[in-house]
Amino acid sequence: MSGLEDLYREIILDHYSNPRHRGELQVPPATRTEGFNPLCGDETVVYLEIKDNSIANIAIGGRGCSISQSSASMMSQLVHGKSLDEVRDFVKIFKMMLSIHESSLGSVTALANQESNDPGDGSIDNLQGESVQGESVQGESVQGESVQGESQDGDSRLLTPEELASLGDLAALQGVVKFPVRIKCALLPWNTLTQSIEEALELSP
Q: Considering the entire predicted model, what is its pTM?
């Protein structure tokens, strides 16, 4: 396993073992939104407090595999204190990263856990590199490189190194794209956050 793969694995396991912003917020003034993935049983709860069009406070609850739980932890760390416009940009970039075309995987580490090794009960998954089209995926840094992604409207373009860097620790999840069933795990916290923001805005005076 390469040095970068080791680093990514450590980041994922750190967020799974020591989740950021874990807990609850008082409702109200915060809102509480639940997300559920029926395919694997992952659950995410997002407590959100919005002030001055920014995320003033966030707390995360729920249970599930290391991918969903680490994604939730990384997400909460990234969006806390950010404006809603910034958060929407993060959502777009993260989803584009997880829609990366297979032809671009040569420069990305495949670090998602295989379904057969992940019982989905919250245990630490076996994260390992995989091969693409018969060639080993190298643990190359994406710094200074662009990654092909696809936006929600179907238009594809290159993600810039700056966009990837803006995701912080979430870049460690880019290998999830190799395992489509795990993409839903990684996206669950983000879809729950998006719904939470909509609900909070609807309740705001």
A: 0.72
